[in-house]
Amino acid sequence: MPTPLSAARTTLPWAVVAGIVIVALSMRGPIVAPAPVLGEIQADLGLSATAAGLLTSLPILCFALATPLATRVIGRFGPEIAVITCLLGVLLGTVVRSAGTAPVVFAGTVVIGVAIAIGNIVVPVIIRRDVPWQRAAAVTGAYTAALNVGSMITSLGTAPLAAAVGWRWALATWGVLALGGALYWVWLAQRLRGGAVAAPSAGDPTAGGAHIGRIGWLLLIAFCGQSTAYYAVTTWLPTILADTRGLGAAASGATASLFQIAAIVGAFGVPALAARTPAWVPAGVIGLLWMSLPVGLLVAPEAYILWSIVGGVAQGGGFTAILSIIARVTRSDREAASMSARVQTGGYIAATFGPPLAGALNSVTGGWAAPLALVLVATIAYTFGAVGAALAARAPQPAR
């Protein structure tokens, strides 16, 4: 006789997958939404350039600092309530950020960052619990793709909305996505109510405690490299192209957007490759693609469009590969949350230092070779950690 959990996993997989995609649409858009109208916000609130930059960097810092809170919320109230809390927090923060003076705007930004931190941790838990491990990589790819689609929609839509109704209403409008997502998850939580705490099925390839610890450290190295490279490139690629290739703001911004859009290819490419090759192959391929971005911009900068696309594929695939390994090797919701929290805390702390360090290297050297070398080191770290974790996940464990 099927258990409630097995029945839920049999009858509701697409509902859960849809829920994961819906929550992802609200987990990156609120961060990038201020960027297209940063000048208007700065002028309206009387902010310095540094203070205005905090509107996009504060949430990343919150990802790291709020991870312990996220873990407690998941452990005490369960994954479904954690997702609903994430989405309602994003909605609240979006509304607060769109109203009042500068301190109120920054307070709303912090609320958004804390809320998304909960989502960052809980999604791998839900994938591990509700998705058969054979499909975990594909669902993680859909999640990663939805993150980038949400960013793209918000980036493209905020400026036209601001021109029509002002920046405050333009930013507030994106709260509709979070509201719709929260309502969906309230419904889904009702459908899933009564399911037992998940345990891996007999065929699931999980790892023992010491083995899990080694994989976790390797994934931490990988995510530090992934996050440092991603946020450094996201922050500075338009400026690099403007300085080295003489592109105008529109052209450099359009080229840099390819770095974001191409992530969708990587997000779906990793599970497709993983289904046909050993587990370390996708991680290795993504690592090579990642390294080609800084190397290409250094040795063949005239092909900057190619390197932007290749780097975009890598950043989408890299994120998918890391979360897929977490979902595959952990044995319980608690273990998945713990590993996800540890890996993402370290990665996002590293990410907060990546962009300013790259900028400082540019200021000291007067060029972009040193910042690109920093990105190269980060991508090497990703490759080492991701390939090592993939190999360790497949390695036989000592008899106990």
UniProtKB/TrEMBL annotation:
Positions of transmembrane segments: 12-33, 45-69, 81-99, 105-127, 139-163, 169-187, 215-233, 253-273, 280-299, 305-326, 347-364, 370-393
Keywords linked to the UniProt accession: Membrane, Transmembrane, Transmembrane helix
Localization of this protein: Cell membrane
Q: What is this protein called?
A: MFS transporter
Where it mainly occurs, coarsely classed, is membrane
Topology in the lipid bilayer: Multi-pass membrane protein
> Which InterPro entries does the entry link to?
MFS, MFS_Cyanate_Porter, MFS_dom, MFS_trans_sf
